[in-house]
Amino acid sequence: xxxxxxxxxxxxxxxxxxxxxxxxxxxxxxxxxxxxxxxxxxxxxxxxxxxxxxxxxxxxxxxxxxxxxxxxxxxxxxxxxxxxxxxxxxxxxxxxxxxxxxxxxxxxxxxxxxxxxxxxxxxxxxxxxxxxxxxxxxxxxxxxxxxxxxxxxxxxxxxxxxxxxxxxxxxxxxxxxxxxxxxxxxxxxxxxxxxxxxxxxxxxxxxxxxxxxxxxxxxxxxxxxxxxxxxxxxxxxxxxxxxxxxxxxxxxxxxxxxxxxxxxxxxxxxxxxxxxxxxxxxxxxxxxxxxxxxxxxxxxxxxxxxxxxxxxxxxxxxxxxxxxxxxxxxxxxxxxxxxxxxxxxxxxxxxxxxxxxxxxxxxxxxxxxxxxxxxxxxxxxxxxxxxxxxxxxxxxxxxxxxxxxxxxxxxxxxxxxxxxxxxxxxxxxxxxxxxxxxxxxxxxxxxxxxxxxxxxxxxxxxxxxxxxxxxxxxxxxxxxxxxxxxxxxxxxxxxxxxxxxxxxxxxxxxxxxxxxxxxxxxxxxxxxxxxxxxxxxxxxxxxxxxxxxxxxxxxxxxxxxxxxxxxxxxxxxxxxxxxxxxxxxxxxxxxxxxxxxxxxxxxxxxxxxxxxxxxxxxxxxxxxxxxxxxxxxxxxxxxxxxxxxxxxxxxxxxxxxxxxx
Length: 661
Description:
This protein has 661 residues and is mainly alpha-helical. Helix content is 73%, strand content 0%. Helix 2 runs antiparallel to helix 17 (441-457), helix 5 packs antiparallel against helix 14 and helix 14 (366-390) runs antiparallel to helix 15 (395-405). The longest helix is centred in the middle third of the chain and has 29 residues, at 213-241.
């Protein structure tokens, strides 16, 4: 409220672009602009262009493998701590050298032996990558195999090819880790800064859009899903960046910032729960919060910046602790504590030791990983044989597409196929135009640098954009070593990628697929279990356990919602079943909102618990999802103390009475 006694305006208006990006990300079309890295692009492009230049100077096509190795090693870079990067990149370069030499030499035996060898190598590389938690490195090793299969050499030349590949990988390691090292926590800083930008978007939506029922639902679903996923993505980046320096001041600062963002997110959920729109009093509070979020974002992006600028922000929020609305007062107190903790240069406390632990649904079992590996290998085998039957000039481009498009289930392969095709066609047109203009060898070598820089800088931003620049990069590299017919090469690249992408999707649909309805039911069961565990955790005095349960509930609900939206791209599931699943997820969001409000405002929202649990039980029955947590004795005891068990038992008849089992 300003000096004239009028209510001040709330935060800025919500941006339309943010809504589009959230819609795309929910359906597996990821777009993460905060991960755009000019430095990463320039480092990788320097190595790749140097390797290509060496091959041209020595007039040796065999040295092209050094350029391929350097590029793929840069793609295998996981970012984060130098020790982790060294282990992953060196491991890939060593494995790739063995695969390149072995597959190239054995593929000279003929198509059938090569096909069998490809099946074995791709399956092994994929499985090892998945088991090690490095799926990108496993996928790239499979790419090395399919390219090597189309470039056979004699057995006596295999060691030389392996050494060339290892040399290219060593060049990438030398530049990326020694001569031109990347900031170890640059990606983590950008990811955490995006958390506060997403919180600003959520604040703006609540302040300006919640009078509209559609905006209210968007706040509860899109924003909560987007912010939770952004927080967990930042937590993963921080885990990698802090692996070798968990006690450093910078890691502690970033961990505290991420923890503050998570707590502010919880306050927004509690404040927005049950509200049709933000009241004038809440809008003024949100205005003060928006200013604080903007300042924290600036602090996160610039290391070592003086944090004293946060003190005025915390003082304004502290004044809200005397508000007449208890929920507003409690939320303001929680936000003030979160910002004070970030503003004060305190030593590391016990909770910071677990900040970098990423929260995610349970990992797949070894049997499921083996099935995924065999499926990818079988799809690559079929694509390889079909490519040779059709007489494709560049079979390895089709098999490369098959490797990268094949995902654990078809609901993930659909968007990857669409992005691969769109990027290949657009990139093919660009490559044809470049090939028509750049005909001199030095021009073709020169264009490799900007293309490689853009490709590597965009690799973590968006897959379509990545492929758009990847396609002309490979076409121009091919033109350097095989002059002439650049336009035809560009057309072949686009067509082969389209073929490989379609075959990959068909393989995911036909080769022992996981039923989409069962996959969604599994995700729903995890979400139900996590949200009920969060409600149960409120009975514990350990606040860290409650916060961990809240994060897991958000992560599991987000995974289930993404699975639901991706199923809209595929067939085989009735719209009625999807609607029931959507209703259950909406109720789980409401349950999480009640639990968060209870966590922050005490038992003020306990009266809503029984009716929401009754809806969860009934909707679980309709969806065929187990809700064993409702029969947990701690839940029964909690409801009995609140006088709500009888109310819950009487509100639905689809489940046995609580505690009867």
